[in-house]
Design a protein that fits this description.
Blueprint lengths: L16 H19 L16 H24 L12 H11 L5 H20 L3 H7 L1 E4 L3 E4 L2 H20 L9 H16 L4 H4 L3 E8 L5 E8 L2 E6 L9 E5 L2 H8 L7 E4 L1 H8 L6
Parallel strand pairs: 3-6
Antiparallel strand pairs: 1-2, 3-4, 4-5, 6-7
């Protein structure tokens, strides 16, 4: 994978499209390199219960799901009703494994064909469509701007190579900083809808998130009434009960995806523990 420095952009804005597409294509190339090696096909990855072949099955599943709802958005028909984030992990697991019935060659060919089709669909988006002029229903979270789907691809192409490398024995693997930087603002959106209401019951506190590096930033999080609400930190986390410091965007993103509990935490131990268990997985 290229180690060239990529300047931060807002992946949700049309101005960031070129960078997002560059990162997506680079990460896809790396993903294809790893899944195309026959020796890796049955490697148990960092994803619980998934071998490398299931990552390919997952990509077939999600991409073809995108096609269905994309056609609905452009054709004026009803999309598949969103299933909600709470069932996302279990449903994705079942769907990915269903493609084990395909031979390795069939699965790779189908995945690559789908990938190129979606690449063109994203590339053809106008600036207005990228930012929300075209809203496409996500199978689990509902309608989102069409440009979001490029970063959804980065979530897979950027993080799943980490899962394969981990399965191959590199327990200290990581992800590229631009990859993580594109994903990071989406993590703050998803976290708002991943609150485990049982874990959040009675919680009322604020804590800080401090992410170092060019793609990072500082945020104050309010946890109250079962809600997780972020805002840019304007001070120095005064009044916060805890502070989580991440070395870079990759550290936060891998934490968001549940690969490990990253970040160094200071402050109230009970709040720290509460934060670590506040969200359900997707």
């Amino acid at each position: 994978m290229s180690t060239a420095t990529i300047a931060p952009v807002n992946p949700m804005s049309a101005e960031g499209k070129e960078t997002v597409m560059t990162v997506m294509r680079r990460d896809r190339e790396n993903f294809i390199r790893l899944v195309s090696d026959p020796k890796n096909w049955n490697v148990q990855t960092r994803c619980t219960e998934w071998e490398t072949r299931d990552l390919v099955g997952h990509m077939i599943d999600v991409t073809e799901g995108y096609f269905h709802n994309w056609d609905a958005a452009t054709g004026g028909t009803d999309p598949t009703a969103p299933m909600g984030l709470q069932v996302m992990a279990t449903t994705l697991d079942d769907h990915a494994k269903d493609f084990r019935k395909l031979s390795r060659e069939e699965a790779l060919e189908r995945f690559k064909k789908n990938a190129m089709k979606l690449d063109k669909m994203l590339d053809d988006l106008t600036p207005q469509q990228w930012e929300g002029g075209l809203m496409v229903s996500h199978p689990y979270s509902g309608a989102v701007p069409a440009g979001f789907y490029a970063t959804f691809q980065i979530m897979d192409y950027g993080v799943h190579p980490y899962d394969i490398e981990y399965g191959l024995g590199n327990k200290l693997a990581t992800i590229d900083e631009a990859t993580a930087g594109c994903i990071l603002p989406f993590a703050f959106i998803f976290w708002q809808y991943q609150v485990d209401q049982k874990a959040a019951a009675g919680a009322d506190f604020q804590y800080g998130i401090d992410v170092a590096g060019p793609w990072g930033g500082k945020w104050r999080i309010t946890v109250k009434d079962g809600k997780w609400s972020p805002e840019p930190e304007k001070g120095n986390f005064e009044g916060c009960s805890a502070l989580f410091k991440f070395d870079n965007a990759a550290d936060l993103v891998l934490t968001f995806f549940g690969r490990y509990p990253g970040g160094s935490a200071s402050g109230d131990p009970e709040v720290i523990d509460k934060v670590r268990h506040l969200h359900f997985s997707i």
